[in-house]
From TrEMBL, chain A:
Pfam families: SBP_bac_5 (PF00496). Residues 1-22 form the signal peptide. This is Solute-binding protein family 5 domain-containing protein. Keywords: Signal, Transport. The keyword Cell cycle does not apply. Residues 74-427 form the Solute-binding protein family domain. Gene3D superfamilies: Dipeptide-binding Protein, Domain 1 (3.90.76.10), Dipeptide-binding Protein, Domain 3 (3.10.105.10), Periplasmic binding protein-like II (3.40.190.10). Belongs to the bacterial solute-binding protein 5 family. It comes from Actinoplanes couchii.
TrEMBL record, chain B:
Belongs to the binding-protein-dependent transport system permease family. Its main location: membrane. Keywords: Cell membrane, Membrane, Transmembrane, Transmembrane helix, Transport. It is a multi-pass membrane protein. This is ABC transporter permease. It comes from Actinoplanes couchii. The chain crosses the membrane at residues 9-29, 100-125, 146-167, 187-206, 232-253, 287-310. Residues 98-306 form the ABC transmembrane type-1 domain. The keyword Aminoacyl-tRNA synthetase does not apply. It comes from the Bacteria. It holds the Pfam family BPD_transp_1_N. It is found in: Cell membrane. The keyword Transmembrane helix applies.
Length: 520, 321
């Protein structure tokens, strides 16, 4: 209709422009029912948990069998108690009286349907990779679900945060293309009113939520992809909470900044098949030559901390002895290289037996953070007499070269050390896609990672061994852990940041507990 | 004239057909993997077998002729395909967004045409005067400014400093419905920015063109007959200058579309701009093909309209139909 009334539109545009400044709040509802507005760049592709929405829980719309509290500790959600693990059998008893947003009751069949759909090869779900230990899932009665695993897997309960969908709404449909993916029905504290892709997601409170009536009755999640635009709209006062890049997240009147720690690290993967990075002395020298503190202040604008291993310092499994001071020790790097026979040439670059100490460091060209880290590593290495040639490429160009050229990579989630590290550092995953592309091989690490998942009584020791061996072999130079920076309006109460994963957007951001937020 | 329209339509079919084949070949040459794009950051922790399974589900590893035949077959049944980057039918993606892009471009085009004709003609009439020199200087200055820079500057001044207009979005972020006034208020800045960025080129052209025709014999003759200045200017000089201008509008349309992509991005408008970029980066062939075909059709249609307008504006022009 709008297109047919262009002249009228023009006239109105003029009229509105003249009157707009008089009363910006006219027409909006009173402040008590005004929605909370949060803004993020991370618009989901789908709102169906089976296809990957809110796989780490805290999805506002859905609940899993279990959830995580402010310390990321597992607590029961749709399960009445934390499910019982008995070898390869995991039994979950459902909470009674839970209903979906459409009023139907939650039963064990819904849980079985959700997990079986993820396992179905016809369904385009990437969660299958995370559930490769799952053999089958069955309902033994209306409120009991039994998971049978292929092998003992200590952190299995962490995989039960996945949101449960109503079987009735999806049975017999093509899940990949179901209308449900855009108009979902869950059990969570909020239900979807409307989703305008590219613009916003409107949510209203589920007043009969089993966890209690949400404090705020309406929520809007605005999707603004561009960092600068999001920052400007924040300053115009549109949002109550917003994620901004560290350099843009500066305090301004009426708003405060939150720096939230993450388990998301960046580092340099050093391939063993490269003649230079395959040398342990070179890897150790690069590790001590890296000025991590300078990277945190210079590259990350202070929103980060030095990294020394794949287990974040906030984890209960972190081994403190592998951590360094954060500053560079070029003299120690020089000594390591001297002792190993790498001697400096006329141009300051070292060589050993005719092999010059030079290698290529690839980074994805569109990722400015990884580019700046690559340049920082290059500058630090040069001081120790190692020449790095940084090269920005697309992933398609990077992938075939990962076996022999170093690469800036990043991973990490805070939930369990098994999740990423098992496939990243075990030798049997060497050169499988992005798993262990550098062909790192250590029998000690292989055994420790296996013990970590199959021997639940002794996980702490296993991961201590793992981290110490990694620090001795240096298959990666871990550089920094990132922090996510948010700007939150003064007077918003209930904000309780927790350690975040790389993936965050509508779900798992600082507003993971949005249902408890209130506004003064 | 009907003959002309019919003949143009007959030409349009093979053009669209060739465009779609070209799109397919480009898509095949692209090294990007749609399954990787679908996975996003998850791709790095996903089993390669899982990604291969998804590619098999989509049939994107099938031979090119097979994929093309499948796509064409679906197209003839009215099915534009499934967008792998947006996770919904291509038809639904376009239906939800094309209207906003057309609105932005349509309003902008109207303002650009009206504004550049009026200001250009006045500048030509008083050529060498203060107004003429001022507007030319401004036009050259704006011409050299990137549109996204103009957009960010407009937000800084009119949204942040003065607070007159919203900084982005299609409706108020807390609005629960789409109302005319709300949308109009939100479109003022985007339309203004796109207009300012597109207008200089048109304006300078009109100014030079009218200035030239003011020296034409028939204009001098009209003056000599004692006709009013305004009648001479708009009735005689502008009308002559209008002919090449019409051609330009048709050929300049793609640039306007390009500018609208940037403006949509800066003002977070849910138009076709952002999804086009996403589709290109994600090798989302079905969506790219549909957008390209629509754009091609619009350009062909614009050229046809230009020709028709030409015959209407100049009775001497008879298109060989």
């Amino acid at each position: 209709m709008l297109r047919r009334t262009l002249p009228l539109t023009l006239a109105l545009l003029t009229a509105v422009s003249l009157t707009a400044c008089s009363n910006p709040d006219a027409g909006t509802a009173s402040s008590s029912t005004k929605p909370l507005v949060v803004a993020t760049a991370g618009e989901p592709d789908t709102l169906n948990p089976i296809l990957g929405y809110g796989t780490d829980g805290a999805s506002l719309i859905f609940d899993g069998l279990v959830a995580r509290d402010a310390q990321n500790t597992l607590i029961p959600a749709l399960a009445a108690e934390l499910p019982v693990v008995n070898g390869t059998t995991v039994t979950a008893e459902l909470r009674g009286g839970v209903t979906f947003h459409d009023g139907t009751a939650l039963t064990a069949d819904d849980v079985v349907f959700t997990y079986r759909s993820v396992m179905d090869p016809e369904v385009d779900s990437l969660l299958r990779s995370d559930l490769d230990m799952l053999d089958k899932v069955e309902a033994t009665d209306a409120s009991t679900v039994v998971f049978t695993l292929k092998y003992a897997y200590a952190p299995f309960l962490q995989r039960l945060v996945l949101g449960i969908v109503p079987a009735k709404a999806l049975t017999g449909q093509d899940i990949n293309k179901a209308a449900f993916n855009r108009q979902p029905v869950g059990t969570g504290p909020y239900q979807v009113t409307a989703w305008t892709p590219g613009d916003k997601l409107q949510l209203t409170a589920n007043d009969t939520w089993w966890g209690g009536k949400p404090a705020t009755s309406a929520v809007v999640v605005a999707f603004v992809a561009d960092d600068n635009v999001r920052a400007q709209r924040t300053r115009a006062g549109e949002f109550d909470a917003v994620e901004l890049a560290p350099k843009l997240a500066t305090p301004f009147p009426g708003f405060g900044v939150h720096k939230v720690p993450t388990a998301d690290y960046r580092g340099v993967m050093l391939p063993m098949k490269n003649p230079v990075t395959g040398d342990l002395a070179v890897r150790k020298a690069l590790n001590v030559a890296a000025d991590r503190s300078a990277m945190v202040t210079g590259v990350l604008a202070g929103a980060g901390e030095p990294a020394y291993g794949p287990v974040p310092p906030t984890s209960e499994y972190a081994e403190p002895s592998v951590a360094g001071t954060g500053s560079a020790d070029t003299a120690a790097a020089g000594k390591l290289l001297d002792d190993a026979g790498w001697t400096a040439g006329a141009d300051g670059i070292r060589a050993k037996n005719g092999q010059r100490a030079t290698f290529t460091l690839m980074y994805p060209a569109t990722d400015s953070l990884r580019k700046e880290l690559a340049l920082a590593v290059t500058a630090d290495a040069k001081k120790a007499g190692i020449e790095i040639k940084p090269e920005g490429l697309t992933w398609d160009a990077i992938t075939p070269r990962m076996r022999s050229d170093a690469l800036i990579m990043g991973f990490g989630n805070p939930y369990d050390p098994d999740f990423v590290s098992y496939k990243l550092f075990r030798s049997d995953f060497a050169e499988q896609g992005y798993y262990n592309p550098g062909s790192y091989h250590s029998a000690v690490v292989d055994q420790a990672l296996q013990d970590g998942r199959s021997r639940p009584d002794n996980r702490k020791d296993a991961y201590t061994t793992f981290q110490k061996q990694l620090a001795a072999d240096v298959p990666w130079i871990f550089l920094t852990y990132l922090q996510h920076t948010y700007v939150v309006r003064d007077g918003v109460n209930g904000v309780s940041p927790r350690v975040e994963a790389h993936e965050h957007g509508v779900e798992n951001s600082i507003w993971w507990n949005l249902h408890t937020w209130t506004r003064a | 004239m009907i003959k002309l329209v019919r003949r143009r339509l007959a030409v349009a079919v093979p053009v669209l057909f060739a465009t779609s084949i070209g799109m397919f070949l480009l898509g095949a040459a692209s090294p990007m993997d749609p399954a990787m794009q679908y996975a996003g950051a998850t791709a790095f922790t996903t089993d390669p077998a899982n990604l291969a399974q998804i590619r098999a589900n989509w049939g994107v590893d099938d031979p090119l002729p097979v994929q093309y035949a499948r796509w064409l077959g679906n197209l003839f049944q009215g099915d534009l395909g499934w967008s792998t980057s947006r996770h919904e039918p291509v038809g639904a993606v376009i239906a939800a967004r094309a209207g906003w892009t057309l609105l932005l471009i349509g309003v902008t085009l109207a303002v650009v045409l009206a504004g550049s004709l009026l200001l250009g003609t006045i500048a030509a009439y008083r050529r060498g005067g203060l107004f003429d020199r001022g507007i030319r200087a401004a036009a050259y200055a704006v011409e050299s400014m990137p549109v996204f820079w103009l957009a960010l500057a407009a937000i800084a001044v009119f949204a942040l400093a003065l607070g007159w207009f919203p900084a982005g979005g299609l409706t108020d972020v807390t609005a629960t419905s789409t109302t005319f006034g709300d949308v109009a208020h939100h479109l003022v800045l985007p339309v203004a920015v796109l207009t300012v960025s597109q207008a200089p080129w048109f304006l300078l052209f009109v100014r030079d063109s009218v200035a030239d025709s003011l020296r034409d014999d028939h204009v001098l003759a009209a003056r000599a007959r004692g006709l009013r200045g305004r009648t001479v200017l708009f009735g005689h000089a502008l009308r002559t200058a209008l002919l090449p201008f019409l051609t330009l509008v048709g050929t300049h349309l793609p640039e306007l579309v390009g500018g609208s992509v940037l403006v949509e991005t800066v003002f977070s408008l849910p138009g076709l701009g952002a999804v086009s970029v996403q589709a290109a980066l994600g090798s989302d062939f079905p969506l790219l093909a549909a957008i390209t075909l629509i754009t091609t059709a619009v350009v062909l249609l614009a050229n046809l309209c230009t020709d028709l307008a030409y015959t209407a504006a100049d009775p001497r022009v008879r298109i060989d139909g």
